[in-house]
Prior knowledge:
The complex is a heterodimer. Chain A has helices spanning 205-211, 261-266; strands at residues 19-29, 34-43, 52-61, 65-74, 79-80, 84-86, 90-95, 100-107, 112-120, 125-133, 136-154, 157-160, 164-174, 183-190, 195-201, 218-219, 222-223, 227-232, 235-239, 244-249, 257-259, 278-284, 289-305, 312-328, 331-344. Chain A is mainly β. By secondary structure, chain B is α+β, with helices and mostly antiparallel strands. Chain B has a single domain, classed as Nonspecific Lipid-transfer Protein, Chain A. Chain B has 7 helices and 5 strands; from the N terminus they run ααββββααβααα. In chain B, β2 and β3 form a beta hairpin. The N and C termini of chain B lie far apart (63 Å).
Amino acid sequence: MITDTLRPPPLFDPSAAAYKDWLHLNVFDHPSGCVGIFNTSLHGSPNDVRSRAIGTALVHEPGVGWIGNVEVAGIEEVSVGTTSIGLERVAVATDPTPGIVLASARLPADGLEAGITATVSARPVDVPMPFPFGPGWISWYIVPRLSVEGGLVLRARRLDLSGATAYHDHNYGRWHWGDEVGWEWGACAAADAAVTLVVVGPGHPSVRARNGSRSTVQAQGHAIGTMLLADVAGERRSFSSGLVHTDYLGRLTQPLRRLPGALAALHQDRIAPPLPDRILVRASDGVDCVEIEFRPRAAAQIIAADPARRGYGFIHEMVGRFEAVCRIAGRTARVDGLAVFEYVD
Amino acid sequence: MSTPLSVREAPPPCRSLGEYVAALVSRLGEQEPALLARLGEVVGARCARISLDQETIEVRFQAGGVVVTEPTIGLADGEGSTDRYTTLDLLDGRLEVTHAILEGRLWVKGEVESVTRIFQAIEILLDGSTRNPELHRLALDYGVDPCRHARPPGSALTAGRRVVVDPDHIPAGEGELLRRLDLLP
Lengths: 345, 185
């Protein structure tokens, strides 16, 4: 069951121009190694014709590269429901009962079609309180693991997703792109075990260093560190800020797929951001412990423009494989699989 | 909060290159007159010659608006030429500007200051388009203009097809570009 809906601003909300709402689904197809990123989002007041919706449908196929694209539409051209955002070519929706997430994409010119039904298979995590986020706030709802039915068409080749798992989240809040905000996030899905590891934190340190005070998630006046949620065969542990240590090593030299193209052309200075080629995450509370090593194989940069005032956000999606050792409740599990790490500044 | 999904029912009108340029500037001015004024300040009295496939126009700013004319014999302050597939690849994020220049798919000529100002003008238009639905719609129209070639089939991007701009890395095509332009020492 999914107890979650979109959170549009109420009438006369003075912060409506900073409204953000998005539905996200990552699909990890373990047999093929393909990783899919499906996202639909709303940016700006629903009553402002300048407001936009962005639909992202990208699949990274090993040995081939990124397939798919980003669709941008005016807010008036989008179908928005209580739990759905549908653009003309990309849509994501949730059905609270029985608890499914649906994603579809029709991008034949970009070689991608998708029809995915993902069913909740791990307890959701609801963080409804508004976390201070730059001058605004952010909240989220996470389903760490879902089973998958459906398939993809990748450049005219059909790929059945019965061996895939998925991750879903819904983020919402108030901020403008270009504000002093940023985050890091990662979802690791084990191939042959019911293990999902979710990492959430304040941003890539090299990005933080470059941008000075940017890229901080702040709570009660204090910058918070990286947090980790481990869901290991039904056992769940949360490691809070201070218990999680992250190392970023090397530099990813793979060129990025940057979208939408017009904004990529505008931001030539962002063509080669300092992304790592190896990430180590260690979390321990003295009893339980998780160690993750993630090696990205490719990255995409999605550029979000604020519709109400000049400002841009740069969302970096890194895909690859991970290995982890989880010591939870006296049991040790060694797992590996596919992962997505995201850095936003 | 439910709104109907808008699906394009009729194809957009056929537009010439000059009509697209004029529409770009006028739609920018309607929504953001301050940006239009900035555009005018950046380009001043300069004249740009723009070619897209077989079409060539000259563009200059005058009295707060853009004037599009047929090409003249006189020298323009800057020239740029490309083709439809390149513009579509750029809009679709299949091609970086750097790569287009290195491959000779986007060709720009002029004094450094004039070329810089023309690129500044393009940046103003791109930036303005993010807050201007009419400019966004014009880009969509261009993509499906019934009097122009259809989009080329999509292709996944691989490392060999892309250019990484890194201070420590010299792209393979850069030496060839400098040789072609007779700029090697």
